[in-house]
Amino acid sequence: MIKKILLLCSFCCLLNLRIQAMAPDKSFFTAKWEAYLQAFTQADYATLGTQFHYPVSLLLDSPLILKDETSFIETIKFIRENKLQPGYSYSKTDSSQLTILSESTCYLDVTYSRFNANHQRIYQGRGLYFFKKINDTWKIQVNMPIQ
Fold first, then answer.
1. For the domain 24-145, what is the CATH code?
2. Are 77 and 45 in contact (CB under 8 A)?
């Protein structure tokens, strides 16, 4: 019985290593996150729209499922212009941790800060950004703020 359990554990470890080897590394997803953050900071809605697979889920206070790029851009524009802290100027990443779930799904757990024009932190938050690989392209599919 112990041999079977050890064999099963070994198999699971090897399977997990295989999955991790098939997915890009943390720097790949961090670069995608930073591109998203830069586009968000610059209110570059056209670029933001290209960084997501649709439908996209925004798991806010009231979860939203946005079926296409147009509805996503309208929603992000509204959030950026009406729901951020007064004086918002830019955002920076504080830390991130990658978790690979499968060959085609992972998430980046990100802590970030928002600053005003005087470089004073006005907010610190955390979110899970789920990436999905569809047609050999990795994009964000779910955005889930935690704080």
1. 3.10.450.50
2. yes
Q: What is the pLDDT of residues 121-137, one digit of tens each?
A: 999 999 999 999 999 99
Domains of the chain by residue range: 24-145
Burial (Cβ within 10 Å: 0-12, 13-18, ≥19) of residue 29: buried
Give Cβ neighbours of residue 97 (< 8 Å, ≥ 6 apart): 108, 109
Tell me whether the omega of the peptide bond preceding residue 86 falls within 30 degrees of 0, making it cis.
Answer: no
Can you spell out the DSSP letters for 85-140?
PTT--EEEEEEEEEEEEETTEEEEEEEEEEE-TTS-EEEEEEEEEEEEEETTEEEE
d(CA 138, CA 127): 18
**What type of residue is 19?**
I
pLDDT digits (tens, 9 = 90+) for 12-59: 444 444 444 467 899 999 999 999 999 999 999 999 999 999 999 999
Q: What is the C-alpha separation between 98 and 77, in angstroms, rounded?
A: 27
